[in-house]
Each structure stands twice: as C-alpha cells, then as structure tokens.
Design brief:
The structure is a single chain. By secondary structure, this protein is mainly α.
C-alpha cells in the first residue's frame, strides 16, 4: 500500500511538473502574440500619421493653388 501511494505521489508530481511546463510555454506564446499585436498597432499608427501628413500636404497644395489662381484672376 505504501509503495502504491509513493508511486501515485511521484506520478502526480510528474504530471504537475509537466502541466507547469506547458503553462510556461503557453505564457511565452501569449507574450509573443501580444508583442506582435503591439508591433502591428504601432505600424498602423505610423501609417495613419503618414496618411494624415499626406492629406494635410495635399490640402495645403490645393489651397495654395486655388489662392494663386484667385490672385491671378484679380490682376
């Protein structure tokens, strides 16, 4: 009976160790996915800023062009 109990305890300890290892690997996978998600969000943020800058530049060019045409029409 004692040998069976000790064997059972060893088996449970081994299962616990394996479960802890699996949990640690899953945690590493989760951290990697979160890091990739953050990088993707940063990339989209940079692209959004670039798009806004291009839009602002285009609007400024159009405003300058319209202003120049209007000034030329007055002379």
């Amino acid at each position: 009976m004692r040998d069976e109990t000790e064997t059972r305890i060893r088996d449970l300890e081994e299962q616990l160790s394996t479960t802890a290892d699996d949990a640690q690997l899953a945690n590493i996978d989760l951290q990697n996915m979160l890091q990739k998600q953050q990088q993707t969000l940063q990339m989209f943020s940079q692209m959004s800023k670039m798009s806004k800058m291009m839009s602002d530049t285009a609007m400024a060019v159009l405003a300058t062009s319209a202003s120049s045409e209007h000034a030329g029409a007055l002379h």
